[in-house]
Amino acid sequence: MSRKQELLSAVSTIKAKDQDGVPHVGRVALTDKTLYLNVNVRGQGGTIALIDVNTKREVGVTNLDGNRLNAGRDYIIDGIRVLKGTTASANVRSEKYSQTAVLDEALQNAEIRLKQNGNILLDMPMSDISNPSSTNEVFRNISTSPLIQSNMEFEFEIEYPKGVSVSGAADLNIRFEMRAHQAKV
Length: 185
Prior knowledge:
Helix content: under 10%
Radius of gyration: 18 Å
Largest sheet: 7 strands, antiparallel
Oligomer: single chain
Order of helices and strands: HEEEEEHEEEEEE
Structural class: mainly beta
């Protein structure tokens, strides 16, 4: 973020003092949020739903609860990245995730999609959201600012190339992080 953007953000926060320090646009309160999901991908191939109705919020695993957002809480995504586990832990809760670890071939060539209400909000190769050559906290900026709407089911899936799967020889964990603005009405 540039100094000018930081200053504008600070000014907005000061203006929000009357609203308990939470920036508002009209009636909408905005909060910075990082949505995250840790997944064991050992032996995966084909198209896999990463989130479904049975996904349960658990600190250290995911901050998403099912595939439907709570009423009045929409998310506007402005960045995404994927991190790779470095310890091959069978438990995603105790894995150490790194941005600089290189994804294996099946993951590099896979594609992710975020869909809601018949619309594709995000569709890109995994190689586009992995940046192992950088030690900075790098998110792939999302210029279209996709909106995940509350009270509507959404899908987050990964599709591997035909006939290709992640090795089943050892556990492999990955972590998706989506930088977002939570808009609460």
